[in-house]
Amino acid sequence: MHHRRTHLNVEEARRRFRYDADTGRLTWANGRNEGREAGWVFNGYRLVRLKGQTWRAHVVIMAMLQGSVHPGQIDHINRDGTDNRLANIRCVSAQENALNRSSTKKLPGAYRGARTKRWHSCIRRGGRQVYLGMFPTAEAAAEAYARASAEM
Fold first, then answer.
1. What pTM, to 2 d.p., does this model score?
2. pLDDT digits (tens, 9 = 90+) for 11-53
3. What's the CATH number of domain 102-151, 3.30.730, 3.40.30, 3.30.420, 1.10.150?
4. What's phi and psi for 36, nearest 5 deg?
5. Residue limits of CATH 3.90.75.20 in the chain
6. What is the dihedral of CA 133, 104, 113, 13, to 10 degrees?
7. Which residues, including other chains, have CB under 8 Å from residue 128's CB and lie 6 or more apart?
């Protein structure tokens, strides 16, 4: 799932799944699992299989609603990748999605990655964001930020 895929068969997804916008549940539409929640949770996201390919459930849901795979990113507003309620997911650019990440006010420059659960640090220089690295603790990430800030 590292490369961007756009070949989701939306009609097949609509035949195989039902989506409840209020609960965020994607369930099987027919067969022996009819009514059961589709897929499994891995690395903080619900995944489903469709025609031999694994997809994040929120990508399938948005494609079912919009008729095609969204070219940007799909953001979980509350940062819970398993909460696929329509009120919690939105189509955004990569830049908008980066704004909705966990950070700590006590340790500037440190934020926790949603997927990796490790601490990262970045700083803005000349209007561009510069990634400082991944760190085992928030303190180490904040320290890297403080060093980079002092060099400016």
1. 0.65
2. 999 999 999 999 999 999 999 999 999 999 998 899 999 999 9
3. 3.30.730
4. -80, 150
5. 10-95
6. -150
7. none
